[in-house]
Fold these 2 entries.
Entry 1:
Amino acid sequence: MLLDPNYLRDRIRTVPDWPQPGVQFRDITPLLQEPESLRVLVQHFVLRYMHSNIDVVAGIDARGFIIGAILAYELNVGFVPIRKKGKLPYTTIEEEYELEYGSATVEMHADACKAGDRVVLIDDLIATGGTMMAGKKLLERLGATVVEGAAIVDLPELGGSKLIRESGLPLFTLVDFSGH
Ligand code: AMP
């Protein structure tokens, strides 16, 4: 079966002015909700990484956990969470990064992966790229090799995907949204 090129994009809902005025929130829950589209979505990532000798999938809080955990299961590797500050119970390492106003911090357990592990780092969406760059730094501090960043959606106008690629991390995304 050949897919309509807009199959995934048509199942992402745009919610204007959420969580604050001016933000076009790209909501992936319709894509997760139907058994067919969930399967199609996961399959894109599985096919991308099934021959890449991946050791670990790292998912970013919170929507990166959903797709990341399924991907890890399908690749027959483990899953590790990168969480917002204050959520992980054991010894953590942390990275702070800049937001438009203020800053945010992500954490990972200090034993989440080991030196030399080949990791795919996944989130639902790339906006400014700050979150994924912070995740990359955490993984690299533990000596892991981040093979590629992956996300469902790229918002190229916000420059994050360019920033990530320019940092030397390849990036794989499925759907672009520009403007409204
Ligand atoms: P950034 O660090 O700026 O690339 O932001 C990416 C993170 O924020 C991801 O974890 C996304 O889930 C979330 N995010 C940022 N902007 C949006 C948006 N317009 N729609 C949905 N999620 C967003």
Entry 2:
Amino acid sequence: MRTRTAAPTAVITGASSGIGAATARHLAAAGYRVVLTARREDRLHALTEELTAAGHQAVAYALDVTDRAAVMTFAVFLDEYGPIDVLVNNAGGAIGTETVATADPADWRTMYDVNVLGTLNVTQALLPRLVKAEGTLVVLSSTAGLATYEGGGGYVAAKHGAHVLAETLRLELCGQPVRVIEIAPGMVRTEGFALTRYRGDQDKADAVYAGVADPLTADDIAETITWAVSRPPHVNVDLLVVRPRAQASNYKVHREG
Ligand code: 8X3
């Protein structure tokens, strides 16, 4: 076991809102120094200020994970932060609900870029540091990474890509002192996910959760991530599927009223 006096450091992508922001709050409360990255700089700074005011160590860095050169520059910036103990690859999202027959390939490309190549970029940039720190890499995939549904093709394909990235990486790193954890959430109500998927149509976004008593919250997933990364180093939680009680599969959702 390594001994260290400074707080462990966690890097979280997509940390300006939703599951990423909640994960930053939970990891900070668990004693991590958190490095928050996302494209929306103003929201990042607001969260960093909130965490700092609460006595936590938090740093904001504006980053588009699909910009590989920018990700490499970010890795150099992290040099002054010493070991990197946890990386949470959370940046991602869905665009559109068109069928395979009618989807715009540009949407599919964007989803592959952020959900798969963004994760690949940040993973490649920080992996040597994670291995050196006996660290933990988390991939936020989705239940969409495990089974498909009509109208979900582009997102489901991208999340299957994220799932395969995590599975392959775990095989390739076997024997090295680093863990690869995949968290696959089902129905989580956040302010942004469904709204982005429905291209800003709030009514359609709200309809996703209509009648569902208790969809998961970003905090539920953040707690799960914090629990998984804080297991003893020899315990690797390979894959956790987390759904609300009202959702038994991507298809079977209990709605009231
Ligand atoms: C989100 C889950 O059901 O919208 O990652 O694909 S779903």
